[in-house]
Amino acid sequence: MTEQEVSRSWNRLFAGGVEVTAETFTKAETLLEELRPESPLYHRLQNELEEIRILKNGTKGKAKKRPAKLKI
User: Fold this and answer.
1) Do 24 and 14 form a contact (C-beta atoms < 8 A)?
2) Are 56 and 20 in contact (CB under 8 A)?
3) Which residue range is the domain that position 50 belongs to?
4) Position 56 in a domain
5) 36-71, pLDDT tens digit by residue?
6) Contact status, residue 32 vs residue 46, Cβ threshold 8 Å
C-alpha cells in the first residue's frame, strides 16, 4: 500500500460516528505495518492511535497519576 492509500483507509476506519472497537485497533495496527518505520506518516498515525486508545479507555496512559488535592 502507498502512504496515500494507508491515509485514506485510516480516515475511513476512524470516520466520525463510527464506533471504535478492538477490531478497529487491530485494523489500524495492520495499516501501520504497511508503512516504513521512518515514515513521518507512520509516526503521526502511531501517535494518533495512542491518543484514540487513551480517549477510548478514559485514561491518560503514562500520566495516570494526578497530584492529590490538598484540603486546607
Assistant:
1) yes
2) yes
3) 3-62
4) yes
5) 999 999 999 999 999 999 998 876 544 434 444 555
6) yes
